[in-house]
Amino acid sequence: MTTLNRRDLGLLALRLGTGAVLVAHGTQKLLGWFGGGGVDGTAKAMEAMGFHPPRESAIAAGLGETGGGVLLALGLATPAAGAAAAGAMAGAVSVHAPAGFFAQSGGFEYPAFLGFTAAAIGVAGAGRYSLDHATGHVVDRPWVVATAFLGSALAAAAVVGRRAQARSEAAHGENGKNGENGQDGQDREGSTD
Question: E-assigned strands of the chain?
Answer without folding.
Answer: none
